[in-house]
Amino acid sequence: RSAEASPPLGIRGRAAGRRAAAAAWKKGNTRLEAAEGGAGAAAMATPAAEFRLGQRVCDADGFVATVAYIGPVATARDPERAWLGVVWDEPTRGKHDGSVSDDEGRVHRYFQCEPGRGSFLKPHVADAGRGFLDALAERYVTMDAPFIAPGDVLPGAFAPTSSGRGRAIEFVGEQKIRGKQQIDRIRLTTLPGERIARIEENVAETAGHFEEVDLQRNLLSDWDDVARLAAAMPGLARLTITGNLFPPLTPGVAASFVSISPSALPSLRKLVAHYCGLTSWCTLRHILRLAPLLEELHVAGNTLFDAQGPLGPTDEAAGEACPGLRVLDVAATGVASWSAAVRELRLFPGLQELHLGDNPLPAVGEGEAELPDLRSLVLTSTGLDTWQAVHAISRFASLESLRLSDVPVLRGRGASEVRPLIVVAVPTLRFLNSSPISARERQESERTYLRRALRVAGEDPQAAARDFPRMAELQDKLGMSLTTSASSSHTTLAAAMVNVTMRSVAPSAAPSAAEPTPKRIPTSLSVGKLKLMCKRMYGIEPAKQAISFRRDRHGIPEAMDRDHMTLGQYGIEDGHEVLVNEL
């Protein structure tokens, strides 16, 4: 996923499946750029009355928090003084859980949060942020502003030379670059982490022509600010508000939005609102009503579902179908049941791309087939735990691209082992985990799938029917059967022999061992006896051997991990390569 989908630390709705992404944010994105001179001159004089509950603030070091309490604190020296009780995004920035204990041991609770995330701040050290226009003016200087490099030379900057003298560093083209960055010429602006807390009333005068705005990781916390932005920019087509914290978008809040921006979001095609603290699926419904032309909606990391289904009150008036939506990202939103999710997904009959990663979802596509136009599906880090669940993905008849990894049914198995099975289980795929599927790979995958199915059928026919539902179809297509793959079907010694190429890929093997060695061996030979032969050839103890085979040097290796099975049962044929690795 792109950086815009990575979670800011501390914002509600974080998913355990995104720990790696969260770690990346912790290194460089958990703080905003602090204003020069600390929290800023404006914040130094801000009284407590100027703050409100739910407001986003930051301190002099750029750490972000949400105001959860405003008022006196029992343990303060001045019991009448108003303090700000805040919950930090950074889990270890605070000192308590929203409560304090006085000298007599009595507990005074002012708000609730996780231990170590709560603090009380004096109002003058809390930065309430700045306006959109202030950040814009700082980012884009005017043509008459002082140059960084007057005369194309950076003042006081020198590069060392071989003679020991410093050579002035030139900065050529500053005026030309500045000319292309004038506000009246640009259509896109990115202002991440700029402490923007409000959208001014007069934004239209300066930025009314903007078509794309990126405001991720700022201090916005009111939908009215989004409405003011929409009212000022009627041509706004793409908006990113990831990492800002908003309340649920209720009917009342939606009405306020429309009162500010009567046409709502008339041109919006793409909204990215990852990790915005949203806790109601109805918020998405209202967004769709406000943005009738929306084609992409990205809301990963918001708590929109629980085990029973979508969160929030039922609002039938907000549940009209949205046939124009093409891309929906609900990764890490708590989706735990496909039947519950599909009731909402029916609102999007034209959906072509669906992101469901990092959800405890055990299966998709059960029951009646849905989403007839779905072409791309992401199921990374979900709860798929059976091969029936993998085969159920094939219910999406138009599916061409699938991302499937880090799920229970695949764990402990290599990519070369599971990829052929997925390719066959979902026959419409053209891309698996972003890698194209060629016609040759599909053919090899079908043979691999059938060989494994026949091996399982020889031991447990019921398990084979359950986990390999395409076995009979591929038997008819490829002409392979359990009897023809077993050594017992051969009537002569010549028919029971195959010509293979042995090759060692063990790291400790001598260079000569990597050279191919032709061998003619019986298909009745067990893998255990093959390992004894490999010990004599390559000096690797049988217990440390990992043997696999492939159709040719460009084929996908398939593990031979059952010592009692024969080469015939694995489907070894003339021309195959046997690879010997070391554990």
Report on this model:
- With 583 residues, this protein is α/β, with parallel strands linked by helices.
- 24% of the residues lie in helices and 19% in strands.
- The protein has 16 helices and 28 strands.
- It has an eleven-stranded mixed β-sheet with strand order 10-12-13-14-15-18-19-20-21-22-23, covered by helices on one side. Strands 25-24-28-26-27 form a five-stranded mixed β-sheet, with helices on one face.
- Helix 12 runs antiparallel to helix 13 and helix 12 crosses helix 14.
- The longest helix has 21 residues.
- The radius of gyration is 31 Å and the shape is elongated.
- 38% of the residues are buried.
Question: What is the topology?
Answer:
Layout: H1 19-28, H2 41-44, E1 56-58, E2 64-71, E3 83-88, E4 99-101, E5 107-109, E6 118-121, E7 130-131, H3 132-139, E8 153-160, E9 166-170, H4 174-180, E10 188-190, E11 196-198, H5 203-207, E12 212-214, H6 223-232, E13 238-240, H7 251-260, E14 270-272, H8 281-290, E15 296-298, E16 305-306, E17 309-310, E18 327-329, H9 338-345, E19 353-355, E20 376-378, H10 387-392, E21 401-403, H11 415-425, E22 431-432, E23 435-436, H12 439-459, H13 461-467, H14 471-478, H15 482-485, E24 497-504, E25 517-522, H16 527-538, E26 545-550, E27 558-559, E28 577-582
Parallel strand pairs: 7-11, 10-12, 12-13, 13-14, 14-15, 15-18, 18-19, 19-20, 20-21, 21-22, 24-28
Antiparallel strand pairs: 1-2, 2-3, 3-6, 4-5, 8-9, 16-17, 22-23, 24-25, 26-27, 26-28
Structural class: alpha/beta
Would you identify the regions where 5 or more consecutive residues have pLDDT less than 50? Answer: 9-29, 35-45, 483-494
Residue share in helix: 10-25%
The total strand number stands at 28
State which percent range the strand residues make up.
Answer: 15-25%
Mean pLDDT rating:
84
Largest sheet: 11 strands, mixed
Shape: elongated
Strand order of the largest sheet: 10-12-13-14-15-18-19-20-21-22-23
Kindly provide the radius of gyration, computed on alpha-carbon positions and rounded to a whole number of angstroms: 31 Å
The rounded distance between the terminal residues' Cα atoms is 33 Å
